[in-house]
């Protein structure tokens, strides 16, 4: 089967992307964009001779509003006479999808800190319960397709990625590229996304993706990147880890004196 990965520009200049994976007989939506952006999704669907009712699954890579914010609305729009799209997500982010817990945000830059202060990222969005919930290190193989949803925890406690054809991956916010929140310019230059919970775990997940053969990384902000560019990013994340450890040693030294 032939798979076409199509970017949906939720915001221009690749600042925020969602994706359609198109194949014979339907499509899968990966991420939903911020609330009330369904017209952007519809426009891209129409450009590729698809409609909302062709969507068979909606995969949500993690619970940040720019990825999960419009999931409920898009699921409602996907209902045909037979059924609607099934939402797939990981249990690690379930309390946020259900609105039972407030998310925490670890800003990775001064710009992200400012951005957080606008209140846009921590806003509530329509709640939903995924139909297919990945647990722990469980993955989910989409029936009859060469598409696999795998847990890649680290960006958040429930972040997942979508492997297509075994050498392409839609990786959500495991890595970003460009400037500010991502996108805009220098899209071949990897960077950390605006918010990231655990950079060491992210580095490990990116290493795993490369060792299982991923060569092309499609991203929520900026991108796509190739495996070489992602390797550079891994090195930077590992440096960060070393600096962090040195910093802690330094603090211990200070305590001793
Ligand atoms: Zn995110
Ligand atoms: Zn994001």
Question: Can you describe this structure?
Answer:
- By secondary structure, this protein is an alpha/beta fold.
- The chain has one domain: Ribonuclease Z/Hydroxyacylglutathione hydrolase-like (Metallo-beta-lactamase, Chain A, 4-Layer Sandwich).
- It has helices at 38-47, 65-68, 71-77, 94-97, 110-117, 199-211, 227-256, and strands at 4-11, 16-23, 26-30, 55-59, 86-90, 132-134, 140-141, 147-151, 160-164, 168-170, 176-177, 190-191, 216-218, 225-226.
- Strand 3, helix 1 and strand 4 form a beta-alpha-beta unit.
- Helix 6 (199-211) packs antiparallel against helix 7 (227-256).
- The longest helix is centred in the last third of the chain and has 30 residues, at 227-256.
- It starts with a strand and ends with a helix.
- Bound molecules: zinc ion (2 copies).
- Residues 64, 66-67, 173, 193, 220-221 line the site of one zinc ion.
């Amino acid at each position: 089967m032939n798979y076409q990965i199509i970017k949906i520009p939720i915001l221009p200049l690749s600042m925020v992307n969602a994706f359609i994976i198109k194949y014979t007989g339907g499509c899968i939506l990966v991420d939903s964009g911020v609330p009330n952006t369904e017209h952007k999704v519809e426009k891209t669907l129409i450009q590729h001779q698809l409609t909302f009712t062709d969507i068979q699954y909606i995969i949500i890579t993690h619970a940040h509003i720019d990825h999960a914010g419009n999931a409920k609305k898009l699921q409602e729009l996907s209902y045909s006479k037979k059924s609607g799209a099934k939402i797939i997500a990981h249990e690690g982010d379930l309390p946020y999808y259900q609105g039972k817990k407030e998310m925490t945000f670890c800003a990775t830059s001064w710009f992200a800190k400012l951005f957080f202060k606008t209140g846009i990222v921590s806003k509530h969005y329509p709640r939903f319960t995924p139909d297919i919930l990945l647990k722990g290190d469980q993955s989910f193989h989409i029936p009859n397709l060469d598409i696999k949803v795998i847990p890649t925890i680290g960006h958040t406690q429930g972040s997942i990625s979508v492997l297509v054809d075994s050498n392409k991956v839609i990786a959500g916010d495991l890595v970003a590229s460009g400037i500010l929140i991502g996108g805009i310019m220098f899209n071949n230059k990897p960077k950390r996304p605006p918010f990231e919970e655990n950079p060491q775990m992210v580095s490990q997940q990116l290493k795993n993706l490369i060792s299982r053969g991923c060569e092309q990384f499609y991203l929520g902000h900026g991108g796509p990147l190739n495996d070489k560019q992602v390797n550079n990013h891994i090195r930077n994340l590992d440096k960060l880890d070393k600096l962090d450890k040195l910093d802690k040693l330094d603090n211990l030294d200070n305590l001793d004196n």
